[in-house]
Amino acid sequence: MSTARPLRIDLQQIADWVRPEGRVLDLGCGDGTLLAYLREFKRCHGYGVEINDDQVAECVRSGINVIQSNLDAGLRMFADAMFDTVVLSQTLQAVHNAESILREMARVARQGVVSFPNFGHWKHAASLLAGRMPVTRDIPFQWYDTPNIHLCTLKDFEDLVAKVGLNITGRALFADGQPIDVLPALRATLAVYRFETR
After folding, report:
1. What is the distance between the alpha carbons of residues 101 and 92, in angstroms, rounded to a whole number?
2. How many Cα atoms occupy the beta-carbon half-sphere of 154 within 13 Å?
C-alpha cells in the first residue's frame, strides 16, 4: 500500500522529469513529500536540504535523508556532479542570491528543476494598478510578512538562466492546477522549468 502523499501540481511535473533510480537533491524540501514519492515510485535515492525545524523533523520521521541548512550558505557539503537531478520547488523567491543558487545547482547536478510563482500573472498586475501588493493562492502573504525576497516573471527567470549559462530543456506552466498554453506570461500562476548545463 502506498504511503506517499498526493503531490502538488509542480511536484508532480518535477517527478515526471526525474529518471528512475536517479540521485536527487531537493533544496528547500519541506516535509520531504517529493523525495518520499520518488523513493516509492521511481526507486530514487536522495537528500533534502531544509532550514525549518518542524519540516526537518517530519523528514526524519519519514526516513528521508535531510540536512538542516540555509540555502544562502551554498551547497559546499555536496561534491561536483554528485546528483542526477537537483530540485528547487517554490523556494527560488525566498533565497537571497538567486544567481548563486542556480550556479550551485548546475555544479552539483547535470539537470536542475525549478518551480516558482509567476509574478507576471495578470491578477498581480491588476492588484499593483489598484495600489496594492498582490495576495493570491500562489503568493499568499501580505507585503509585511512575506518570506519572498525576489519575485519574478517567466521572462525574468529565462534571462537569469541564460546569464548563468544554462540551457532550458523543459517548461510547464499552470493555473488552477491546469496546464496553460495560451498567453502563458499573463495567465500562468505557477511555472516549472528544467535546465541542463551547456
Report:
1. 8
2. 22
How is residue 118 written as a grid cell? 509567476
The string of pLDDT tens digits covering residues 108-166 is 999 999 999 999 888 888 888 888 887 887 777 888 887 777 889 999 999 999 999 99
Grid cell, residue 41, equals 515510485
Of 49, 28, 39, nearest to 3 (Cα)? 39
Superfamily classification of domain 9-118+150-197: Vaccinia Virus protein VP39 (3.40.50.150)
Residue 23 half-sphere exposure, CB side, CA atoms within 13 Å?
A: 10
Cα 10 to Cα 13: distance, rounded to the nearest angstrom: 5
The ranges assigned to domains in the chain are: 9-118+150-197
- Which of 97, 76, 69 has its CA nearest to residue 163? 97
